[in-house]
Amino acid sequence: MARPSVREQIVDAASEQFHRHGYNACGVKLITDSAGVPKGSFYNHFPSKEDLALEVMARYAASRRFEELSAATPAPLERLRRNFEFLAGEITGYGYERGCMFGNFTTEAADHSAAIGDGVRQGFADWTTAVAAVLREAQSDGTLAATHDADVLALFVVNAWEGAIVGARAAKDGSSFAAFFHVVFDSLLT
User: What's the domain range around 32?
Assistant: First the structure.
């Protein structure tokens, strides 16, 4: 089996370290030490830590299973619920110590880096667009009342999810997730 490239090792290590410690707490040395590569090799692959953060966000977005939201089955709202259950399961699996990378980068670095700000805005926009498409599909098939604009509703749902993550991390339990699922899926999306 081929050994991962140095670039891949750096991206994997950065993903882990950014998610565990945050952007500001991770220097290039911590990332390269975690990757098991010399610090100088970092700059062979990335002009800056900021550029690496953008790659990490792109990979994080790809791991969110948003493509499953556009699958033909199951029904739209079930697909949406399953996606949020997957996201909740990840956070629960880390003992409520890690949140959403988009949210983490937003609070920590987006105000100080235009590139990271653009990256998180794009990540949230892509996610909200995928959720809106599912909601429109549910409105079209009659399983969701068309009382709200799907784009506005999707933005609300994504933002409510981010708030639920903050609550779950603060309480170190699933009560915020339970509230999210109850309000969103048992009340709002009916």
Answer: 6-57
